[in-house]
Amino acid sequence: MKPDQDVKIVYAPPQEIVTLFQSGKVKFAALPEPYVTLAIKGGQGQIVLDFQKYWAEVAKGAERIPVAGLFVRRDFYEKYPAESNKVAEALGASTDWSKNHVDQALQLSSQTLPIPAPVMKTALTRIQFDYISSKACQDEVLTYLKKMQELYPEA
After folding, report:
1. Domain residue spans in the chain?
2. pLDDT for 148 beyond 90
3. Which residues pair with 7 in a beta bridge?
4. Residue 55 burial (CB < 10 Å; 0-12/13-18/19+)?
5. CA torsion through residues 116, 119, 125, 128, sign
């Protein structure tokens, strides 16, 4: 397919895309969770492509997309290595805790996220949160960044 010839691609905030999709004004939508769950809620649509599975085929790796990370400036890390490592360890521990205590995590997150807990619980069946050290995922992230640069060099 060629953009603007075979298909019109419209970029919008996820909340807006959900509304457009549910109203039938757009036929296809590429969304992250939990917006996928919101869009197909009530039988409004179905998932036809799981980006994580597709990425695994493209990258010949795990069914996950390395799209989030914890970063610290080098000068800060050099000055405060112990504190920086404690923050990373806390992130890993909280990620593991959330995976093992889903209902409690949803209750806590509902205090800050404007997404209903039942929607989040469904969305979590399709979301994979893992804490992976930078050393353990360096090749995976580099593969992702190289592929994104190849597909979208102006970014």
Report:
1. 1-48, 69-151
2. no
3. 3
4. buried
5. negative
Q: What is the pLDDT of residues 67-125, one digit of tens each?
A: 888 999 999 999 999 999 999 999 999 999 999 999 999 989 888 888 888 899 999 88
What's the CA gap between 69 and 93, in Å, rounded? 15
Asked whether residue 29 carries a pLDDT value surpassing 90, the answer given is yes
Residue type at position 57: E
DSSP conformation class of 148: H
CA 145 – CA 155 distance, rounded (Å): 11
Residue 42 CB burial class (10 angstroms; 0-12, 13-18, ≥19): exposed
Give, in order, the Cα–Cα distances in Å from 21 to each of 5, 35, 106: 21, 11, 26
Consecutive H or E run containing 83: helix 81-100
Which tokens go with 43? 């039988």
Structure token pair of residue 36: 């996928």
